[in-house]
């Protein structure tokens, strides 16, 4: 079973067999690529993991880039005859959406919540991808809202591009032992690692105040380990949270596939 998650920068393709993840790979999200180009890239990726297209029995696609959804689906249809479900209205997820406009909810957020709930009941919150997208599920297993803000990679890129003489830094490197950086790189490292951790801790306190002190926090995507470890709030990292959620939604809807 193939899961496809179309994001703004990458398309993540994963394969499941007998409820076990067999592989996961990524392609660039290219707004200019044609259906044929996506088909070739997908075929090459499947070949890399030694998966013949005829082995694909079904699949599910989630997308936050509507302009690419049709092209990727078209490419998949060129490779195999399996039916692909699309995350959206009409598919069962097991979660009630208590939002003003449920149609605005990104597929990756719903999938992350589905996979996190498989580990235990709410309340819980998911921190997703390069942007900080916190969406929370309450104790009634209802997705009740969240916050959106730029992630550290996006913020760092904008700062370096718009400010003269600031160097790029590696966010995977730990901050110094002192908050008082002695050079520009150390100041940036402290600011982005410790500053982001402080921001996440502050948001976590507000989530706890509204949803209860027992709320669990999950992270997926590229939130650096250094930032997660600098947080006072325990954060569980799950690399494949979105793809696992996609697969679980496929399981709930496979009778109609």
Features:
257 residues, alpha/beta, six-stranded mixed beta sheet, five-stranded mixed beta sheet, 11 strands, 38% helix, 23% strand, globular
Structure description:
The protein has 257 residues and is α/β, with parallel strands linked by helices. It contains seven helices and eleven strands. The protein has helices spanning 35-48, 66-79, 107-117, 152-162, 184-211, 225-230, 241-253, and strands at residues 2-6, 10-17, 20-28, 59-63, 84-86, 96-97, 124-128, 132-137, 142-149, 216-220, 236-237. It has a six-stranded mixed β-sheet with strand order 6-9-8-7-10-11, sandwiched between helices. A five-stranded mixed β-sheet has the order 3-2-1-4-5, with helices on both faces. Strand 1 (2-6) and strand 2 form a beta hairpin. The longest helix is centred in the C-terminal third of the chain and has 28 residues, at 184-211. The radius of gyration is 20 Å and the shape is globular. 35% of the residues are buried.
Number of strands: 11
Characterize the largest beta sheet: strand count, sense, and whether it forms a barrel.
6 strands, mixed
Mean pLDDT across all amino acids? 92
Helix content: 25-40%
**Helical run tally:** 7
Distance between the termini: 11 Å
Widest β-sheet, arrangement of strands: 6-9-8-7-10-11
């Amino acid at each position: 079973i193939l899961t496809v998650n179309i994001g703004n920068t990458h398309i993540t393709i994963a394969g499941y067999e007998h409820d076990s993840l067999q592989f996961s790979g990524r392609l660039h999200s290219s707004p200019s690529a044609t259906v044929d180009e996506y088909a070739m890239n997908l075929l090459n990726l499947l070949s890399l993991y030694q998966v013949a297209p005829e082995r694909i029995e079904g699949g599910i696609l989630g997308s936050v880039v509507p302009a690419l959804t049709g092209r990727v689906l078209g490419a998949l249809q060129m490779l195999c005859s399996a039916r692909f479900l699309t995350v959206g209205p009409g598919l069962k997820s097991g979660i009630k959406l208590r939002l003003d406009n449920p149609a605005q909810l990104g597929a990756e957020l719903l999938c992350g919540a589905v996979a996190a709930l498989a580990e235990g009941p709410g309340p819980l919150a998911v921190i997703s991808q390069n942007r900080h997208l916190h969406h929370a599920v309450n104790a009634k297993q209802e997705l009740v809202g969240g916050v959106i803000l730029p992630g550290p990679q996006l913020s760092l890129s904008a700062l370096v591009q718009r400010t003269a003489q600031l160097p790029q830094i590696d966010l995977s490197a730990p901050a110094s032992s002192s908050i008082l950086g002695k050079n520009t790189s150390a100041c940036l490292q402290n600011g982005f690692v410790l500053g982001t951790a402080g921001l996440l801790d502050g948001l976590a306190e507000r989530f706890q105040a509204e949803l209860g002190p027992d709320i669990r926090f999950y992270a997926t995507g590229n939130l650096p380990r250094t930032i997660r470890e600098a947080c006072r709030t325990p954060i569980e990292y799950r690399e494949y949270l979105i793809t696992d959620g996609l697969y679980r939604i496929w399981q709930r809807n496979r009778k109609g596939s």
